[in-house]
Amino acid sequence: MKTPVNRLKLIGALLCSLFITSSSNHYGAIGFWHALNTKGSVLENYRHFANYFSDNLFQLPDTSLAILARNKIPSAQYAYSIRLLNNNESDTAKQFWLAGINQLNVFERKELSAQLLTQLRWDDLKLLANINKLPKGDAFNHLQLYLSTPKNKIPSDFIEDLGFSFSNSIGAPKKQCMFNVIVMSDHRNGLYKLDKFINKYNQQPEPRKNIFCFSKPVYVAGELNCKSNSSNTAHCDWQSSKLKQKLPNNYDFLVMMPKHGTANVSNGKMLINSKASYSIFLHELMHFNGFEDEYALPISKQSWLCLQHGFVAPNLFISHGENAPVGWHKANSCQQGGIAYKPSKGWSIMQYQQVGLSAQYRALWLRHLDMTNGNFISDSSRLTLASKAILN
Predict the structure, then answer these.
(1) What is the pTM of this model?
(2) What is the pLDDT of residues 153-176, one digit of tens each?
(3) pLDDT band at 372 (very low <50, low <70, confident <90, very high)
(4) Please, is 159 exposed, middle or buried when counting C-beta atoms within 10 Å of its C-beta (0-12, 13-18, 19+)?
């Protein structure tokens, strides 16, 4: 049982403690004010009142915070690096956060990684991951997408929150659309570029509404091997792909976006790299409906296509002495075999993608679809639209 004397001693000790704490905060505030408003040394004041300064570092001006950071005070190194990142001075920021990285707690490392993600500082995020300082969470998962980590190591709820999907959760095709298209990629930039393309297409559907509908971008890293480089045609190994049994067979076409390689369409599959422009994407969509290139075709293709007669595509007529359609003009497609003709006098989207889709070619596209319901057959009965079985 405590005596009245003991109670008084305890109360006295508590009061002294509160007075000391209050005094410490009071003097800390004075020292902090002094550093903010006079020419007094911020470093000297910090050393006297380190705890108070550490709790209020983000109130310091750049010059004062920089002094503390350059004097290797970990909390100041972190605070200053965040400020530099907010000012888009990422390279300078790295000098400070890296120097004090071992003193940062999980919350601070999460904030740092979030800032690095905002700046798309992938090499810095990889560095944090390599030294085991990148906390699990959004920045970590985004880095995994960037590195094309196999899909089985990516949380499904994370993918869904981004508006993407996996190959085993592709939604049903839309019945109101003439063609339904699965779009997929094996890396983060590809997913976001596909999403951007789809949004832009939906703002102005070509050649009109309900022709093409697209799935959510599908993440397929680890399921399809693509080894293209920037100077070669994009290529993926479909035959040994793990996707063959996973993709639904009630879609009409497929778009795969690897990191590299020039765009092409073959057998109902489009390959287009994640640096391509939207106009190239639209050009390749027209290939789905049988349109041909109006620039010089590959010699291997000329060897059979340019030997044909008449309309071999909605926009290409091959003549071997026959009269070209009225108002059509010579194209560069064939340097052997017959002479190629195209509808436009100048460049079109099928010759130079950057010119965009003209009213003339939109009308030609619509007329072709209305006449054939998407199945274009040339004078030689060659089916130029790819089979709907996208993985045959």
Answers:
(1) 0.83
(2) 999 999 999 999 999 999 999 999
(3) confident
(4) buried
Task: Supply 382's token pair.
Answer: 């060659």
Tokens at 379, concatenated: 């004078």
Q: Looking at residue 41, what is its pLDDT?
A: 73
Report the C-alpha gap between 267 and 160 in whole angstroms: 30
**Domain extents in the chain:** 4-146, 165-288, 299-372
Contact criterion met (CB below 8 Å) for 286 and 299: no
Query: Looking at residues 41-61, what average pLDDT do you find?
Result: 69
CA-CA distance, 184 to 219, in Å (whole number)?
6
Angle of CA points 338, 342, 348, to nearest 5°: 135
Gap between the Cα atoms of 9 and 21, Å rounded: 18
The answer, yes or no, to whether residue 50 has pLDDT greater than 80, is: no
Four-CA torsion 365, 370, 375, 379, nearest 10 degrees:
-80
Residue 223 structure tokens? 């399921």
- Render 141-184 in DSSP notation, one character per residue: HHHHHHTT--GGGS-HHHHHHTT-EEGGGPPPPPTT-SEEEEEE
Q: How confident is the model at residue 240 (pLDDT cuts 50, 70, 90)?
A: confident
Among 197-211, 227-241, 313-327, 365-379, where is mean pLDDT lowest? 365-379
Q: Residue 318, SS3?
A: strand
CATH 2.60.460: does it fit domain 165-288?
no
CA distance 329 to 316: 10
Nearest to 282 by CA among 343, 206, 216, 352: 206
Going along the chain, which residue ranges are E strands?
165-166, 179-185, 212-214, 218-219, 253-257, 264-266, 269-271, 310-313, 316-319, 329-330, 339-342
